[in-house]
Design brief:
The complex is a heterodimer of chains A (176) and B (395). With 176 residues, chain A is of the alpha+beta class. Chain A has 5 helices and 6 strands; from the N terminus they run βαβααββαβαβ. Chain A has 2 domains: 4-49 and 134-175, Alpha-Beta Plaits, CATH 3.30.70; 53-122. Chain A has helices at 13-25, 42-46, 53-79, 96-122, 156-164; strands at residues 4-10, 32-34, 83-84, 87-88, 143-148, 170-175. In chain A, the strands form 2 sheets. Chain A has a 4-stranded antiparallel beta sheet. A two-stranded antiparallel sheet of chain A has the order 3-4. Chain A is rod-shaped. Chain B is globular, with a radius of gyration of 21 Å. Chain B has one domain. Classes of the chains: A alpha+beta (176), B mainly alpha (395). The A-B interface holds A 40-41, 50, 54, 58, 85-87, 97-98, 100-101 and B 265, 268-269, 272-275, 310-312, 394.
Chain lengths: 176, 395
């Protein structure tokens, strides 16, 4: 099914925000916005859900903690019990205090790297990936709003009519 | 001015005070014939007066931190911070009285270095007596009190002046004074905790002790700020404070809990690992006699805030914040209790009617003074340069 996408460009984030508010209140669904910096407070206006990255961070942290525990248990207890500072490593629990710093560091490392990689993958912005923004100027000083006709019950003419008085500077349509 | 203490709240505070006094009386009557009684009574005096004094001081620290970093979001809750910091003079008087009685009783088995007979037979204390002697102790204590009071008075005065005249002159003055206070506080927070708390275990020392005490104090301060803000919100005040402010305060409580746990563990693990006789005595005493309380307190102060306050929704939920706040407060009270009692009473210490009664009495006084402070100034600063930013705070 062909889908017509309307890209509406603004040169001010405030104008875009006011425009988005106006459009949403008259029932338009805005699928995304592109901007050189995060537009404060745009998420609830265009109905973007809260990120679930935090949940992933927790899970990555748990994975890190588990890996660190398994690793240290194997290295320090099973494989080669070491006697450091007069504290022989007979069981993990007995010497758990000396394993805490590494558990902590590894938890943090896994959570941080996991989050960063997830973020880049989810946004398709890994190094070398093609740019996702419709216009290179949105990385400079322009702000673009994306409206898909397939997501709206209104037809193109009606949308045009509504967009007309939001103060945009350029409008671009693409069929994808 | 706009805030009035309701009759119901007043009644509840008096009830709390009454329960506290009755329990204290019960504790006094049942424990009077014990020959450790005076030490126990004064230990509790020190625990409770220090615990609440520390929150007032924590609020003063947080206020100057906000000034020095030119923080914006906090402007809407600034008067709450000032009200908690306003407890400081009262806390100083109460703690000063306890310290004075202890000094007149030659240390009362709490500060054994104040007892000339003990010092005469103890070479280790003699070696420290250039720093740890009653005269220098009081000089330091009075300097701490004077500096804290001076800064508190200045901040309060300028804050009320700003309401009248506005402009940015006062803001930049606060900025400078805030940074200056942090310099003093960086030194005093360590040395004062050595003087008031670490010197109870006079043979033992730890350079991390000051930070550890400071982190505990910061954490309890943030919890109190949350609770007072939630109380005022519930009664319809502070209409400019939104979920995001509560969320930020919750984040502070979460983060400072971690800071405290981190420092507690750093101190514990290094001493455990090195296993040097003169260092491990502190923990040996506490593990032998307070095992459940000591490790229980660590779990409560670390695991509870970590697991419960981790999610974004929990930090915006008044019920969860109040619940976890009460737990943290109790946990940190136990922390201070073990710090003091572990050194002064050692194996004979136990939590009974006296301990709980005195803590509740001090708590009711603390709440009463904070609420009275809140009535004395408008709850929202009108001319704070960052007020607009704070009102639109959204995260």
């Amino acid at each position: 099914m062909s889908d017509k996408v309307i890209y509406v460009m603004y040169d001010d984030d405030g104008v875009l925000k006011d425009g988005a508010k106006k459009l949403v209140s008259s029932g338009v669904k805005i699928s995304d916005t592109f901007s050189p910096f995060p537009i404060h407070g745009i998420d609830p206006i265009i109905g973007i859900k809260n990120t679930r990255l935090g949940i992933m961070a927790f899970l990555y942290g748990l994975i890190g903690l588990t890996l660190a525990t398994i690793g240290m248990r194997f290295f320090m207890i099973d494989d080669w019990p070491m006697n450091i500072g007069g504290k022989p490593s007979f069981t993990y629990l007995e010497n758990i205090l000396s394993f805490v710093p590494i558990s902590f560091e590894f938890t943090v490392m896994c959570a941080a790297h996991g989050m960063a990689i997830t973020y880049l993958l989810r946004n398709k912005t890994l190094p070398g990936m093609p740019a996702q923004n419709p216009d290179p100027r949105t990385t400079d000083d322009k702000f673009v709003m994306e409206i898909r006709t397939s997501e709206n019950s209104m037809d193109e003419k009606e949308l045009d009519q509504l967009i007309k008085d939001t103060g945009f500077i350029e409008i671009d349509k693409k069929i994808i | 001015m706009e805030f009035q203490i309701t009759q119901k709240t007043k009644k509840n505070i008096y009830l709390l005070l009454g329960v506290g006094l009755v329990l204290t009386l019960v504790g006094v009557i049942t424990g009077y014939d014990d020959h450790h009684f005076s030490t126990r009574l004064l230990s509790n005096g020190l625990i409770d007066t220090f615990f609440f004094f520390a929150m007032g001081l924590g609020a003063l620290f947080f206020l100057s931190l906000a000034y020095a970093t030119e923080t914006g979001w906090y402007a809407a809750v600034k008067r709450v911070i000032e009200a908690v910091a306003g407890y400081l003079p009262y806390g100083m008087v109460l703690m000063g009285i306890v310290l004075l009685i202890i000094t007149f009783m030659d240390g009362a088995h709490i500060y054994s270095w104040m007892d000339p007979e003990v010092v005469a037979h103890d070479e280790m204390i003699q070696g420290k007596s250039a720093y740890l002697n009653p005269v220098f102790f009081w000089i330091r204590t009075l300097i701490y009190f004077a500096v804290y009071l001076l800064f508190l008075r200045g901040f309060k005065k300028r804050s009320l002046e700003e309401d009248k005249i506005g402009g940015t002159d006062l803001h930049f003055q606060n900025y400078k004074k805030g940074a200056l206070f942090l310099v003093f506080f960086a030194v005093f927070s360590s040395t004062s905790s050595w003087d008031w708390l670490m010197s109870i275990d006079v043979h033992w020392f730890s350079t991390l002790f000051g930070w550890y005490t400071f982190a505990g104090m910061w954490c309890t301060t943030m919890v109190v700020l949350i609770m007072v803000t939630l109380y005022l919100k519930k009664h319809g005040y502070l209409e400019k404070v939104n979920d995001s402010h509560i969320h930020d305060l919750g984040k502070w409580a979460f983060a400072t809990s971690f800071l405290w746990s981190y420092l507690w563990f750093s101190q514990f693990m290094l001493i455990w690992y090195a296993n040097i006789g003169e260092e491990v005595t502190y923990f040996q005493m506490r593990i032998d006699n307070y095992k459940l309380l000591y490790f229980g307190m660590f779990i409560v102060n670390f695991a509870f805030p970590m697991l419960i306050l981790m999610s974004r929704d929990a930090k915006r939920h008044a019920g969860i914040l109040t619940f976890i706040g009460l737990i943290i407060l109790a946990g940190h009270w136990v922390d201070v209790y073990i710090m003091v009692s572990g050194g002064s009473l050692g194996p004979t210490a136990h939590i009974g009617a006296l301990e709980i009664g005195m803590a509740l009495t001090a708590l009711s006084l603390f709440i009463m003074i904070i609420l009275r402070n809140l009535t004395k100034a408008p709850l929202t600063p009108v001319n704070h340069p960052f007020l607009d930013e704070s009102v639109h705070h959204e995260i």
